[in-house]
Amino acid sequence: MATIEAQALGKRYGPKQAVDDLSFRVDPGSVTGFLGPNGSGKSTTMRLMLGLDNGVGSTTFDGMAFRSLGEPMRHVGALLEAKPFHPTRTARNHLRLLAAANGITDARVDQVLELVGLTAVARGKPKKFSLGMGQRLGIAAALLGDPHTLILDEPANGLDPQGIQWLRGFLKDFAAHGHSVFVSSHLLAEMALMADRLVVIGRGRLIASGPVDDFVKTSRRRAVVLRSPDLTRLGPVLAERGGYVEGQPDGSFVVTGLDRDQVGDVAYEIGARVHELTSREATLEQAFLEATGVSEEFVGGSIGGEPGSPPAPPGRTPDPGDPNVASAR
Amino acid sequence: MIAALRYEWRRLTTLRSTWWLTAIGAVVTLGLALLIALAIASAGEVSEGDNYQLGAVATQGAAVGGVPLLVAYLFALLGVFCFGHEYRHGMIRATLTAVPSRGAVFAAKVLVTAAAAFLVGAVITLLGAGIALLVLSAIDGEGGTALELALGVGTYTALFALVGLALASLFRNQIASLVVVLVMPTVVEAVIQAVLVFPPAFDDVQFLARYLPFDAGSQLYVQLSPNDALDLLGYDPLGAVGGGLVFAGFTALLLAAAGVLFVRRDA
């Protein structure tokens, strides 16, 4: 078992409520994606889960808080930010350092270096690493203790396409072995391929949680495309049955509120001719944009935010949960 | 706690700066020791068993001339790096996911830094005393003075390193901490001391100058200093134990503040 339970997480930065009464559950056996617009509190949530930030609420890993885990890297592996290592300590020594506190052998260190493809530069200084190599080292650190749970903040950042493909396959396989993966990404297409379940937040609040397919089905963009010369007869009946029909510039019609079979049955009932009848599936991206549109704080093009919301303080970067911003350098 | 100590020890020993600072401290201190010993010998002023000559050689002159004690300053840098690197490179989050108990992380840093600084300070001083013995035979029968010096230098170096550690933990900024830890003893205290001791108007509060922490702490290893001449102005510095306690108290206050904030603040 490797269940994560987050209960009523909350974190306030001055007047801004970064994470607000956020509860969710991550079950083993599937990859759970963590989605939210920039600044919605994803990184802050992950730090709260690991006790790195002090806030309210609790997170348990199989019933235990992170801080009370002995040799925590053997239970939970975490990747929180790009390049969390000393620039002149070799990659291998960086992992040996983390291993020292968790009773992990040097043999395992070499094993994870091999796994992420860093063996050739194991004794190289990370200051010469590219973003992608740094990310691989971060992933190696997360995997070091052979944990049952992974918490990864934007792990695909900086990886090349091969690296992303490897990561996707690895995480799916890892989860299939009865482990838990909680992974954030802003790449929705990537998330659609990788995640089985989703936790979606906006402005620090939970918007949705559950299987990816269920979330996508909530999209209004899911519709039926219809071409019919008899629309004058068909239209009113569809409207009667709960459909909403909208004409398109190309002469077709988009029906929402009814599925393809229902539209087809109605046409048959009244003897209307149908030249095209297809389902149009929404994408995760469309569902995500719809779900978070109302809660998106830093909408492109408008500096002051939405009406009624406090304007973004000047000089403040959009993501207060972003570790690179939160800690002044 | 064992895990935190293992972590901190490996953190310290896998940094190049640790070895650089230690090597510079040893090479420069012992090189100066040899030069001073040879200078005394070639001036024909060797007096067997002279404690001041021993002090001059073993501490690159710091014990007898108001010269800064190099090894202590070097380990102040090491103390600053102890937390400075964590915040500068975002390591603190990796550290706390490997060792989640903040109390243990802080305590391990204090213990390992203090132990390393004490050992290096004391060993270098003993080696310097060895040079004094070889070149000048300037060591008394039981070697008591050499041990006292080693203990004093070791303790002062350890406390100095902990001040650096505490400042870096409080400021979370390497540069600011480095500036403060280097400027405090060399400039700030010297100015305050001059203001308190020289003008007769401050005679009533002159005794406060005894409690300037770094100056008081230096009494741990100082045998003779220019301050002794301030006798004439009625200034009476603390002894080794009193001075050491003042410096230790100052360090403890800084560490307590740093430790409490470290546990409470976001990483």
Structure in words:
The complex is a heterodimer of chains A (329) and B (267). Chain A is elongated and about 75 Å long. Chain A has helices at residues 42-49, 91-100, 106-115, 131-143, 161-176, 188-194, 212-217, 231-240, 260-270, 284-293, 323-326; strands at residues 4-13, 16-26, 31-35, 56-61, 76-79, 149-153, 180-184, 197-202, 205-211, 223-227, 244-247, 253-256, 276-280. Chain A has 329 residues and is of the alpha/beta class. The relative contact order of chain A is 0.15. Chain B has one domain (2-264). The model of chain B has no long low-confidence stretch (mean pLDDT 90).
Ordered list of secondary-structure elements with their pairings:
The complex is a heterodimer of chains A (329) and B (267).
Chain A: E1 4-13, E2 16-26, E3 31-35, H1 42-49, E4 56-61, E5 76-79, H2 91-100, H3 106-115, H4 131-143, E6 149-153, H5 161-176, E7 180-184, H6 188-194, E8 197-202, E9 205-211, H7 212-217, E10 223-227, H8 231-240, E11 244-247, E12 253-256, H9 260-270, E13 276-280, H10 284-293, H11 323-326
Parallel strand pairs in A: 3-7, 3-8, 5-6, 6-7
Antiparallel strand pairs in A: 1-2, 1-4, 8-9, 10-12, 10-13, 11-12
Helix pairs in contact in A: 2-3, 3-4, 8-9
Chain B: H1 2-13, H2 16-42, H3 51-58, H4 62-65, H5 70-88, H6 91-98, H7 102-136, H8 144-171, H9 174-197, H10 213-218, H11 240-264
Strand residues, percent of chain B: under 5%
**Roughly how much helix do the residues of chain B carry, as a percent range?**
over 70%
- Class from secondary-structure proportions of chain B: mainly alpha
Please identify the top-level CATH class of the largest domain in chain A: Alpha Beta
What is the total domain count of chain B? 1
Number of helices of chain A: 11
Spatial extent as radius of gyration of chain A: 24 Å
Describe the sheet with the most strands of chain B. Answer: none
The sequence of SSEs of chain A as H and E is: EEEHEEHHHEHEHEEHEHEEHEHH
In terms of structural class, how would the helical and strand content of chain A be classed? alpha/beta
| Principal-axis shape of chain B | globular
Give the ordered list of helices and strands of chain B.
HHHHHHHHHHH
